[in-house]
Every structure is written in C-alpha cells, then in structure tokens.
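ugh ok fine here u go
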Amino acid sequence: MAGARRSTRQSAATAPKYADSDSSASEEVPKKRNAKKSTRRKRAREDDAEDAVNGDRSTASTPPTTQPSSLEPTSPSNRTPTGAQEIYWLLKAEPLPRFENGVNVAFSIDDLAACTTPEPWSGVRNPQACKNMRAMRKGDLGFFYHSNGKPSGVAGILRVVEEAKVDESAFDSKDAYYDKKSEREKPKWYCVGVEFVSKFGEVVDLATIKGHAGKGGKLENMQLVKQGRLSVNRVRKEEWDFILELAGENGDRLEEKKGEALPAPAGEKNSKEDCDSDGKKPEDGCS
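structure:
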C-alpha cells in the first residue's frame, strides 16, 4: 500500500501499462519495522457512523417501471454476447491514516494512480467480499471508493488486470491482517490485481448516493446501501451508469488517465468488515 513500494510509484499524470506476464502478487512484502511503515492491504473498515450518514434520506424519484437487474452475470466471462461488461464492481479503501498492529493501512486513489505495476487488492477477510473478487474477470471496471474519508464516497475508476489468486498477505505474520488459521495447502483468501483508470473531479459522496437510495430511487437496491459493511461490492449496469452521471454533475466529467474510453452513461453517445454481517464465519473462507 501507500509507502510500501516507494520505488515503484510514479506521478498520477500518466497511467501505467503492463505486460500480461506481470504478477505483483508474487512480490515479496517488505518487513514492517515500525509504525511508520504501511501495508498494501485494502480491506476498508466500515464505521457505523459512516453507514448512518443520511440513512433515511431519499429523493422524490419516479418509481422504476422494471425490476432491478440481477447481480449475477449470465456467463462466467461476465460479458454479454456483444462483449459488454455485465456486472461492475466497487472496492473500498481508506485514504486517511489508520493503524492496525502498528501498520498504517491508508491507501487512496492517488496511491493507486502512482503504482507502476498491478496492485494486489490484498487483505480482504470477508467471505462474501472475497467471493466477489473471485468473480471478477480481467478487464472488468470498478469504482474506487474512499471509505471513512472526508467525504466518504466514490473517488474514481479502476480496472482488474489480474484475476483472483491466493492472497499471500494471509500467511505473513507481520501483516496487519495475518490469518493464523489460513493454510497454504488449503487457502481461504484471494485477491485480484488492479490498475488506475481515472479520478473524478469530485467524490460522489455517500450522502448523495443514499439520497438516491430511497423507495423508488435509482440506487434503491445498490449493494453499497444494502450491505454497508461489505468492502467489495457488486454494481448493476444501471447503477454504474447513474453514478457516472452523478460524477459528471459534480464538476469535471472524468479525469482520463488512459487512452481507452470508458463506457458512457445510458442515454449518451459514445472498514472494519464484520463477517457476522453476512451471516458467515471467518473460517468459511471464500472457496
């Protein structure tokens, strides 16, 4: 995470390009010698205070004429017959300093922008969040969410460049989220590799999102709202498009950092994560 790979950071002005053979998950994690060192773990703590922000706020939206689409892709590739992505993602990380076992676990979208190799989204220890990562496919887009930030909300976009592999941080006794019950012969935890795509001109904050999540709102069924403690979320295509529209309304459309165009919104042309909240025990893993 931020500070753990200073030699591989670059300025956010230029987005990285990687060869298919790159594999940052195999890199050795530096030993953490004091509280100033940070880890690359990404699991965000979701405070009750954040979940409660404007929880009852709603907008006078017109009730949808159709039921929300499924959160399950129709194919293992997560692509429609025309090649369009079916399910999008939302991954949370904390941009402000917070210490676990003497390790600063802060990681922001600017930190991701500075990475010169695929960044492993490590440290996720919730079965449902881990299963969501295992469903990700190379090339998938997702939102980068600043958790417990000022403000908390969607800060930009990332791309999956490496599909799920064993999360090596689970075996590192010096890691902030070492899992002593995890065994190499039968791994429970996995992580994907991601890269920076773009940063919004302004964060689409949680209050705004919840403002559209009332009865009949366009984000009424969003997993972010329904399961606020989950650090890796699924996002329906219509929710993805709507949040992109909100990002456009908040100032700059998108700060493009790569030459590839992002999907346009519809209508346009071209935390402390609690396994108990999901009804599953930590030892269930995400197999």
